[in-house]
TrEMBL record:
Gene3D superfamilies: q2cbj1_9rhob like domain (2.60.120.620). Residues 108-189 form the Prolyl 4-hydroxylase alpha subunit Fe(2+) 2OG dioxygenase domain. This is 2OG-Fe(II) oxygenase. The lineage of its organism: Bacteria, Pseudomonadati, Pseudomonadota, Gammaproteobacteria, Lysobacterales.
Length: 231
């Protein structure tokens, strides 16, 4: 697979791409990955033993996923995203990449993202999804109502893409879901110090979950559908 064709900013300019400035700047784009790469990306996705997002490590991934991460973190791709979000020179900010293979039901509570993030992009890689709203990304008007959507929810299917500017009201989340949900997340951060801090925290979380995976699944398993947390 020629890595240059995995992720092309030109694909963002589709008739069905949804770009909005209110209540916060965001974009939802479909079909952002070539069909012929589906098998390689499925094969090369990291086989994490635990649920949740973990800091990207090339050793965990095969060549196609490493190529995709490299393309998602170029200054050129960031500038293309920034134009849609109204962020000048987004590529100047350091990037933090995290990957998720599976979730527990405690994940997905409504939040805004921390102030250390300038923008966040999510690229989904599930080859199929059940006929349910559970686990589907929702951009929201409020922090206390998962059903107050500002756009149609996004199923985490192969090639679906979402990106948003972090704001005090950039509320998002999803209904409780347990199972495989593959996604690559790129966050543009305010500083290298924040990147180092978040990476250390993510590595600690991964180590903890390896030791206490059963406990991690039980925590928050019965959470309310409108549960939220302040970043």
């Amino acid at each position: 697979m020629n890595a240059t064709v995995l992720l092309d900013p030109i694909r963002l300019d589709r008739p069905d791409t949804d770009v909005r400035e209110k209540p916060f700047p965001f974009m939802i784009a479909h079909g952002q990955l070539p069909d012929e790469a589906r098998g390689e990306l499925e094969r090369d996705f990291p086989k994490y033993a635990s649920a949740g997002f973990f800091p990207y490590d090339p050793v965990d991934c095969g060549p196609s996923v490493n190529a995709l991460v490299a393309q998602m973190t170029t200054p050129q791709f960031a500038r293309a995203i920034g134009r849609y979000l109204g962020i000048e020179n987004l590529g100047q900010y350091p990037t933090l990449v995290t990957l998720c293979r599976a979730l527990n039901k405690r994940h997905g509570t409504i939040h805004t993202d921390s102030r250390s993030k300038v923008a966040t992009a999510l690229l989904y890689l599930n080859t199929q999804w059940p006929d349910t709203s559970d686990g589907c990304l929702r951009f929201l008007n409020r922090i206390d109502n998962i059903d107050d959507l500002v756009a149609p929810e996004l199923k985490p299917l192969y090639g679906e893409f979402a990106v948003f500017k972090r704001c005090d009201n950039s509320f998002h989340g999803h209904l409780p879901y347990e199972g495989e949900r593959r996604v690559i997340q790129v966050a543009w951060l305010t500083s290298e110090e924040e990147k180092l801090r978040k990476t250390k925290r993510g590595k600690f979380s991964r180590a903890f979950k390896k030791l206490f995976g059963v406990l991690d699944r039980k925590l928050g398993a019965d959470r309310d559908r409108n549960a939220s947390h302040r970043d």
